[in-house]
Write a structure and sequence with these properties.
Layout (H helix, E strand, L loop, with lengths): L43 H6 L10 H11 L4
């Protein structure tokens, strides 16, 4: 069962959205603000090993990527 961001202390939620399209920015409340990091598939390993300053790696990410790869989704 997926975690509910409202009911847990988890600081972030992961989304897999291969068909997502950037449609522009809009005004929003600070509670709605998100940061999207776009990384080419062939650069994921290097990115995870050399994260930008002030970026934390959620230990679930490598497992999520492994599952997506095994299912042929990435």
């Amino acid at each position: 069962m997926p975690l509910s961001p409202v009911l847990t202390s988890t600081r972030l939620t992961h989304f897999f959205a291969p068909e997502a399209e950037f449609v522009g920015k809009r005004e929003k409340e600070i509670s709605e603000e998100i940061e999207v990091l776009t990384v080419p598939r062939d650069k994921i390993s290097d990115f995870l090993l050399n994260l930008p300053e002030d970026t934390e790696l959620d230990i679930r990410v490598p497992g999520i990527l492994w599952i997506l790869q095994k299912r042929g989704l990435i």
